[in-house]
Amino acid sequence: MEMRRDVFQAIADPTRRQIIGLLAAEPLNVNTVAEKFDMTRQAVSLHVKILEECGLIMIKKQGRERYCEAKLDGLSEVSKWVEQYKKYWESHLDSLEDYLAKIQNTKTKKYAKRKS
Prior knowledge:
CATH topology of the largest domain: Arc Repressor Mutant, subunit A
Largest sheet: 3 strands, antiparallel
CATH architecture of the largest domain: Orthogonal Bundle
Structural class: alpha+beta
Number of strands: 3
Number of domains: 2
Order of helices and strands: HHEHHEEH
Radius of gyration: 24 Å
CATH superfamily of the largest domain: Winged helix-like DNA-binding domain superfamily/Winged helix DNA-binding domain
Helix content: 55-70%
Oligomer: single chain
C-alpha cells in the first residue's frame, strides 16, 4: 500500500524547507539546487520529488534541463492549521495575563495596607 505524502511531511525536513526558500526567490534547475547543499545530487533529487508530490513545487522541462518553481499556495494548509492553534494560545495567554494582573493587584493592595 502506497502512502500519500502531505505538505506536513514535506516541511518536516530542514533540507526541504531550505529548498522551498531557495525556490521562493526564483526558479532554479535541479543541478543548481543540488550545488547549494552538501549532499549528492540524487539525495537532492529525492527531496525535490517529495516536494513535487506534495504540491509545493512544480517542475518544468526546458530542453534537457528540469526547472523547479515554488508553489507557495500549497502552504495554505499549514497556515490554516497554525492559525487554528494560534487562536487557541492567544485566548489562553490572554486569560493568563488577566490572572497575573489580578494576582498583582491583590499583592499591591495587601502591601499598601501593611504600610498604612
